[in-house]
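User: Could you check the structure of this?
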Amino acid sequence: MIKVLRKPVITEKATSVGYLRQYVFEVDPNANKVQIRAALKQMFDVEVDSIRTVRTKGKVKSRMTRRGIQTGRTNLRKKAYVTLKEGQTIDVVAGEGGSED
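Assistant: Sure, the predicted structure tokens are below.
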């Protein structure tokens, strides 16, 4: 279960949706919403209201080296936008979850 959630996404755009009780995680590209929900329940002990997933294709990158132009691709990434139920929070920095009581 722990391998489903790779890391939280801590960017300006991802943290700006925090007031809507939404959190963004990078997840395994083969994981589905049921597995993501179970992993969040096990890891943070929170109740999930909804999950939206986004798959981003890898970009083509090239650089100039002594041997000529080297081209390659970045990996495919999958992000999960998780909305928690009312009163639930996740402290992304400390890795703790639960209710606001």
